[in-house]
Design goal:
By secondary structure, this protein is mostly helical. It is 28% helix and 0% strand. It is built from 1 helix and no strands. It has one helix at 36-51. The radius of gyration is 16 Å and the shape is elongated.
Length: 58
């Protein structure tokens, strides 16, 4: 999700006047029992999005 700025031949610079936005999706299977790992990952994504002041949470 990000470029390693130490990679040879790659030059990066800050873009201060244009925020970078990412849209993440989680596609899961519908089952009768929840997978604890999937539940934890989705919860972590929601928490990270909330702390990043994201307004688009399902």
């Amino acid at each position: 999700m990000a470029i390693d700025p130490t990679t040879a031949g790659i030059h990066t610079s800050l873009i201060e006047d244009h925020p970078i936005h990412r849209r993440l999706f989680a596609a899961t299977r519908h089952t009768d029992t929840a997978n604890p790992t999937t539940t934890a990952v989705i919860a972590a994504l929601r928490t990270a999005a909330h702390h990043g002041h994201t307004t688009h949470l399902p």
